[in-house]
Amino acid sequence: MTQPLFHAESYLKEFEATVTDVVDGGVVLDQTAFYTGGGGQPTDSGTLTVDGQDYQVSGIKRVDGKLVHQISGDLPTVGATVTGRIDWDRRYLLMRTHTALHILCGVVWRDYGAKVTGGNMTPGEARMDFEFENMTAEFAEEVEAKINAEVAAERDIIISNLTREEAEQVPDLIRTKINLLPPNIQEIRTIDIHGLDMQADGGTHVANTREVGVIKVVGHESKGRINKRLRIALEN
Questions:
Q1: Domains present along the chain, CATH in parentheses
Q2: Which of 62, 90, 106, 134 is the most buried (most CB within 10 A)?
Q3: pTM
């Protein structure tokens, strides 16, 4: 079992670990700061270094329940101590993007009561689908102004862990139309944008909304009778 270091510290850029398994196309580590993917956020990339030799990690793949750091060509050996380094520019942009989606989700839920029906992101760009019957350009402009007001409010973002029993007592913790939490998960990780929004979430985020920067709503479209999409992009 690989310990996910990113759950406790999103800003961890470098770490040491031990190779516990070697499989076709990659290695398994005892712990990792590479985000392993999920919730629309893609996996991290970067390098693993062993005795001065760098191995390029293109991403993380789940194979038979194991988290495999994908490497082309030669691989480190089992038992090797590696230094992992994340492609930080890409990761930090994803952290800002993911937090922007939470701001968007929080504003839409607070002000319009619409649940999320889907979402996805790439570094600096994202989309989120909501349970709306109608969506206009004027509405998109209104939302853009509101989400940037939350960025300017410089709200702290707090990561916590709740027992499932505690989590089930928090109204609206699960904001998606379908509850995606497997019944066997007994500890729920939450992201709390202080004063705006609290949700169950396993991804990486910045520590304060000011780090997100300017958010532009760059598109809106209908994806069905009661399913509407907003597209956002970070300005820098």
A1: 3-86 (2.40.30.130), 91-234 (3.30.980.10)
A2: 106
A3: 0.92
